[in-house]
Amino acid sequence: MTVTNPIDVLQALIRCPSVTPAEGGALGVLESLLSPLGFKVDRMVARDEGTPDIENLYARAGSEGPHLMFAGHSDVVPVGAESDWSVGPFSGDIRDGMLYGRGAVDMKGGIACFISAYARLVEAGKVPNGSVSLLITGDEEGPAVNGTVKLLEWAANRGERWDACLVGEPTNPDTLGDMIKIGRRGSVSGTVTVKGVQGHAAYPHLADNPVRGALSLARSLMFPAFDQGTENFQPSNLEVTTIDVGNVATNVIPASARFKFNIRFNDLWTADSVKAEIVRRLDAAALDPELRPDRSAIGYEIVWSERPSHVFLTRNNALIASLSGAIETVTGKTPKLSTTGGTSDARFIKDYCPVVEFGLVGQTMHMVDERVAVSDLETLTVIYQTFIEQWFAHADA
Fold first, then answer.
1. Which among 281, 297, 301, 302 is positioned nearest to 208, based on CA atoms?
2. Which residues are catalytic?
3. Mean pLDDT, range 56-60, rounded to an integer
4. Is this structure's pTM higher than 0.85?
5. Close Cβ partners of 334 (under 8 Å, ≥ 6 residues apart)
6. Distance of CA 177 to the CA centre of its chain
């Protein structure tokens, strides 16, 4: 295996079945590649009650000067039915210019390209005047309890400080160079339980159907819109993701109903303020008599998810300009600066240093036959190499 060739590196990583929470040998491969490049490698195991132990990796080359972090995850989602794949999901096979395997895009491919990019700098005698580190978790696709959060805390407690971070998640919707993620919306989830009175469907006056109340409350959260969006973020959006009664009888009014929701909110809100708005809407809807004429207020309880994700926007010009410049130099494209999509581990890293995200094209992530164009691996490696050089040039200026 040649460490300067991202194809070799990615195939070695894909052949490690590191489905969360299994390490699967992936961190061992990384350690074997990074140590000869001058990295000091630590493999830290994080534990928490009620969750699987997770092995993570932190590697640093250099001890002084500006410090650039690359962050990512070596764990992957399950493959589903292997019989649905046209190749073995952990084979790393190449067909018609495409490299197949679970994690090819999300996100072992990004890790492979960054390592190969750094290796090329070492080979060319262009080691950056500063420090480069890799923070690789095995828990991003899982509950994200024993991964990046604890690895960052562990490293910071040892005195590690970072000036900027690049997360190698697949950010491009169609082609390499489309998009850099410079922020993420916040996310809050909750469960609303509506209390009713069980009874016979033929005698509704003797019962109180909680489904009627649940529909009124759920509608209040979906309409009207929370806002119209901001300069950097799309409009906040709440989705009711399930409504459950658990009633197997068609002639029985149930005693309770519940629904779950998730809101992705922009920088007009904080987790606390959006929660307050949700409660305000629920309280107002509880008094709505449309579906429950001549009834008292709807009785409900709400339970929030334990860990909301907070909205953030990176404004570090040196970081964004270095990455944008590298992409334009290599591809000729000017990337869109975006805050769309779901959450990532950047939401944790932002508390330690400025962070942006850029990686492969994400069209096949989490799908059967996940795959990446071999040509994209080479292009991303050159982008990362150029970015490293340009970022340190900015940092030294």
1. 297
2. 75, 140
3. 98
4. yes
5. 324, 327, 328
6. 19
